[in-house]
Amino acid sequence: MHQVRTAVAAVTVTLVAALAAAPTGSAAAAVPSVPTRAAVLQSARLAIDHFYVAGDGASTGATANAGWRWAPYFMAVEGLYRETGDATYRQWLTAWGERNAWTADAPASPTSNPDSRAAIQVFQDAAAAGLPVDLGPSDRLMAADLSLPPEQYWWVDAMFMGLPLWPRWAARTGNAAYAAKHAQLYDFLKYRGATTWRSGCTNTGLFDASEDLWWRDCMYVPRRDALGHKVFWARGNGWVMAAMARTLMALPATDPQAPEYRSMLQRMSARVAQLQGTDGMWRSSLLSPALHPAPETSATALFTYAMAYGIRTGLLDAPTYLPVVLEAWRGLTTIALQPSGFLSGCQSVGEAPGDPSTTSSIGYCVGAFGLAALEVAQLEGWLATDRFARTTAGGLGTADVGGVWTTAGSAADFSTDGTTARLRTPAGTTRTATLTGVSSRDNDVRATFGFARPTAGSLYAAVAARRVGSASYTGRAVVSGTGSVQAQVQRSGTTLAAATVSGLTFATNDRLHVRAQALGVSPTTVRVKVWKAGTAEPSTWRVSVTDATAGLQTAGSIGLSTYLGGSASPSSLVVTVDDLTARRGG
To answer: Rounded to the nearest 10 degrees, what angle do helices 258-273 and 234-250 cross at?
Structure first.
């Protein structure tokens, strides 16, 4: 992340001039603490619920079409349904889809495609959440769109509306043509951009590498505003950053285009972070905030969404960007969000900087706020998470959140296959992986392990809830050749307590969840529970002990380990690991 920090620190003369025009007032308040997930989701629900009834003056949630103005709103509704399980959101989504016949199409216009296609993202996510969605119309539209010429994506908003769909449909259909399409469309915008809809344009590209920002379309490339600055529209750049996040969510880590999207999100985040107002908000003109000095909500929400995603996935350095996100969220919830749920400060439909409204709101703005909330909510107490959705050899690579894995044991025994980590564990050996970048005292760590049951001896699968140097508190599952399972708490290899997990017999191809906590100091409470994947998590801890061993009564890292008994058969087993998470406990 050194390059990102350097980029953030580098301030050009133009930027200094722009910031001088930004609102200053009194000194900026201290960065707020990470809000609780419950508080963040409550703010989202307040805004989403209010707008469903109030609407935008032309329609309400109950009468909304499937166009681009409403699609981001229902993206947020779908996300809230996943997060809360509230049946009201399910009903809203179902009614919206059925009212629009699950069809994301619109009469032909210069921007109807991909603007109208944005709703397909919601339809597919709703189907994955178990709603009765008919994806047939979406399949037909996506198949037809394979023949779209690159110049169909001629304005940057198009990236948010359509770009994430291509890797999604590549995964849905297995058709490589979908996988190739997003790079083609993106490259046209970045390197060419001329369109018959804008006279006099040349193929200079819409990305300004000297500013790390995007012009809305080719018409704005030569323009300068009243202050002599390039015209970079905040919401347009917000659409791009959010598009990078949403496309990366759907894109295989090994896709050749993934490094470009990651780099773009990093570069833009570095630039945008320097343009934030002291109130946490951004103005609609990024380089000339004085021209439109009121805080603008839709851009702020889209930037927050993308950067919170970047922090969550480790693409952005948390010490650098977490304060930016927290200040933005404070602005969104204290300046934009009103006690009634009305969301103020939204710029109306447009293509260039303009004044936001304090009297009306609009679906894409409320939706962007909801999307930002869904990502910010995941920052609560977050220490590490890893789905191991990458391919590596000779190590485990970098966790989604938590930094680089440090391994102990033969490097050749560590790999990831795109869905799980793989630890080859020969008999009589231990394989250990640690997130040394995590430092926390009270930790709650869990992971899911899979392996073939040994026919003799035992296999040990553990998570480290606190590791200080070579010492550690771990919780582990011990699986015998008969399939019996024992839960153990260990201190640096010494078993402190153990108990059989009654009613659990492990069979080959089963998967086990192991969860351990290390809480407090002098003494530290260490506890563990083990249960089979696909069954409910036990409500109580299977083993719990206290310990006050010097050297472990402080903050530490977290990790995982495996061990195969010296007399075990077979003489080597591969243990898979996925869904590792670590949060602050207590």
So the answer is: 150
